[in-house]
Amino acid sequence: MFPGSLGQSLAGRALRSGLWSLETVDIRDFARDKHRSVDDTPSGGGAGMVMRPDVVDAALASVEDRSGPVLYLSPRGRLLDQDFVHGLAGEPGVTLLCGRYEGVDQRVLEARNVVEVSVGDYVLSGGEPAALVLMDAVVRLLPGVMGNDDSGREESFEQGLLEYPLYTRPSDWQGREVPEVLTSGHHDNIRLWRLAQAEEITKARRPDLWARYLKRRNEVPGKGRADEE
Prior knowledge:
8 helices; 229 residues; alpha/beta; three-stranded parallel beta sheet; 8 strands; three-stranded mixed beta sheet; 35% helix
């Protein structure tokens, strides 16, 4: 499953050039029986299986000399957002634990001080797709990966807002024209238009982000809307 899509495009090029690295560890290699079992029935009954603490602990012990936090991809974890991604991009490394079945025994999570992280309010078959999402979000912030730093600064969530609408040539497509302000060459007007669009989209689609943005704007003098209401 790894590097998957991260072996392609900019992330793949950066991986091959050594701007970031990836080591995969097969948890089954630390199983203690001939069947390479990593799970058992849940204590107290119930459906599914639970990953054993002794097996998971042995796998984590094999990489405990690596720097950075240990994260467990879990739908009950703290939500992955851009602020958290920036924090991870500043770490020397990170260890990602990908669960399967019903999940991982709580005791090993507590013993290893594992931080649970969720990529969204839904359930996946395992932690691997979530790990790829997290890795993609972090890798693209590493120096030299994207090439153009301005691209990252203007994307959704970087300023606490969703991204403004994007346009390119042709200027007239099926009777739909690129907004005139974008072809005016007046950079201040373009900046203000983009800010206003981003604010309106965020306000309409993500009230939670909008409330957070307003709070930040009020805390920082001179920051904020293109046009005050």
